[in-house]
């Protein structure tokens, strides 16, 4: 059997051949042990049913409570708090409290209210590119859209977006990787300083945005600490764009690779809803769910996962499980009953799912309407995946029309 070596798991090359490796793991070793670069033991879960159970299992916790992790090894307390004091790294009751403070801003009804603004941003980005007859779909389209939207929701100056991108990319790359985490320290510090400055200004002049609302809650002092405030804003910025960029980028890649499906969508834009679900399943933007740790010994398929070990749930593999999906490696935008788990499952189910879906629908349909002759701008064999084990996303996707 091909083996996932730790190094491979973190590389662009692994991403290019990951799906056949996952298929082999599902068949032969569905609870597969690896050693992470920081020395922790991780158990890689690849089957759909096991992934669903693991995501709902309250013995698998998000806050390692003093168990050693790369962050503990490399970061100061302040830096570690910044990247871990948010809902996605918390368990109930903290998780429940932190999620409830922001969830109202992300309900389908609130998000539907952003439709016109999202359409305007999409057209604006395509206006800029149109005459050039080519663009990098990632840098010029898939990245700016979600970051502009989340900046506007939070009340952060949109012109600073390239700085967040750099800082947040550095943190994503560094998860479970001490050397990369060491390299990410200046980015984390710059990010903290930036937010401190922004919060100071906003305290004096609150607006109608999410940061002002959170600052108000923090000032009351009961429901949100200062560390949690910083970390929550960090999470919303990172989760708000690191993922949707990949939904749009991977989704357009899948269409370019399957011209018959692209034609089908062009002829019937009403298929966009099922298209987005199929894009999420086929090239899941979050490849592996965020770390979970066994709070007690857990047994699965005859393997004993000791207390304190990490569990890595591979959403990308679960979404290609032949025991759950017919012909899982076929990209079919009319696929029915598509119960993928690209947004996770259980209490950490993606808070931003309605926003991501709306951004994806508007972005893809508008792109195809305005650039109906869209095609690859380079030989697709030269495309490279980002070297992050958490995410699946292309570094660049040059297109022309
Ligand atoms: C296609 C785009 C997106 C995908 C595929 C995605 C995927 C996910 C997944 C898989 C999780 C759960 C991770 C786990 O359990 O380990 C999650 C959680 C989360 N996502 Fe998303 N996400 C997307 C877009 C967004 C957007 C636009 C936002 C908005 C700001 C967002 C905010 C969040 C938050 C706050 C959580 C943590 C929820 C909790 O812990 O209760 N996501 N997302």
Structure overview:
53% of the residues lie in helices and 8% in strands. The chain is of the alpha+beta class. The protein has a single domain (6-400), classed as Cytochrome p450, CATH 1.10.630.10. It has a 5-stranded mixed β-sheet, covered by helices on one side. The chain has a 3-stranded antiparallel β-sheet with strand order 4-10-9. Helix 6 (77-84) packs across helix 15 and helix 18 packs across helix 20 (353-370). The radius of gyration is 21 Å and the shape is globular. The mean pLDDT is 92.
Class, according to the CATH hierarchy? Mainly Alpha
- Sheet with most strands: strand arrangement: 1-2-8-5-3
Bound molecules: protoporphyrin IX containing FE
Question: What is the number of domains?
Answer: 1
Q: How many beta-strand elements? A: 10
Gyration radius from CA atoms, angstroms: 21 Å
CATH T-level topology: Cytochrome p450
Q: How would the global form be characterised?
A: globular
Elements, N to C (H/E): HHHEEHEHHHHHEHHHHHHHHHEEEEHHEE
Largest sheet: 5 strands, mixed
- Based on the coordinates given, report the CATH architecture: Orthogonal Bundle
Q: How much β-strand is present in the residues?
A: 5-15%
Q: Estimate the mean pLDDT confidence.
A: 92
Helix vs. strand class: alpha+beta
Low-confidence stretches: none
């Amino acid at each position: 059997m091909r083996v996932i070596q730790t190094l491979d798991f973190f590389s662009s090359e692994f991403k290019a051949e990951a799906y056949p490796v996952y298929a082999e793991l599902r068949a032969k070793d569905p609870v597969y042990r690896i050693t992470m670069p920081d020395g922790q033991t991780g158990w890689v879960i690849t089957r759909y049913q096991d992934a669903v159970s693991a995501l709902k299992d309250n013995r698998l916790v998000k806050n390692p409570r003093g168990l050693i992790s790369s962050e503990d090894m490399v970061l100061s307390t302040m830096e570690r708090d910044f990247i871990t004091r948010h809902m996605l790294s918390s368990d109930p009751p903290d998780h429940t409290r932190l999620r409830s403070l922001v969830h109202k801003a992300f309900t389908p009804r609130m998000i539907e209210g952003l439709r016109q603004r999202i359409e305007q941003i999409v057209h604006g980005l395509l206006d800029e590119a149109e005459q050039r007859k080519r663009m990098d779909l990632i840098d010029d389209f898939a990245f700016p859209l979600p970051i502009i939207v989340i900046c506007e929701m939070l009340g952060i100056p949109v012109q600073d977006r390239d700085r967040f991108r750099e800082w947040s990319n550095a943190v994503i790359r560094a998860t479970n990787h001490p050397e990369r985490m060491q390299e990410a320290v200046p980015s984390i510090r710059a990010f903290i300083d930036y937010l401190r400055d922004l919060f100071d200004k906003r305290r004096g002049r609150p607006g109608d945005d999410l940061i002002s609302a959170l600052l108000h809650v923090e000032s009351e002092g009961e429901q949100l600490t200062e560390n949690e405030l910083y970390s929550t804003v960090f999470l919303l910025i990172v989760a708000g764009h690191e993922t949707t960029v990949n939904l749009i980028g991977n989704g357009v890649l899948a269409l370019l690779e399957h011209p018959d499906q692209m034609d089908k969508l062009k002829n019937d834009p009403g298929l966009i809803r099922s298209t987005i679900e199929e894009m999420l399943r086929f090239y899941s933007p979050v490849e592996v769910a965020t770390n979970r740790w066994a709070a007690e010994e857990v047994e699965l398929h005859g393997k004993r996962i000791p207390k304190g070990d990490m569990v890595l749930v591979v959403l990308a593999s679960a979404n290609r499980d032949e025991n759950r999906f017919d012909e899982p490696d076929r990209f079919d935008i009319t696929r029915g009953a598509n119960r993928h788990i690209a947004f996770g499952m259980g209490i950490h189910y993606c808070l931003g799912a309605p926003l991501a879906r709306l951004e994806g629908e508007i972005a893809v349909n508008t792109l195809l309407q305005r650039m109906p002759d869209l095609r690859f701008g380079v030989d697709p064999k030269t495309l490279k995946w980002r070297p992050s084990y958490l995410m699946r996303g292309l570094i660049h996707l040059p297109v022309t029309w």
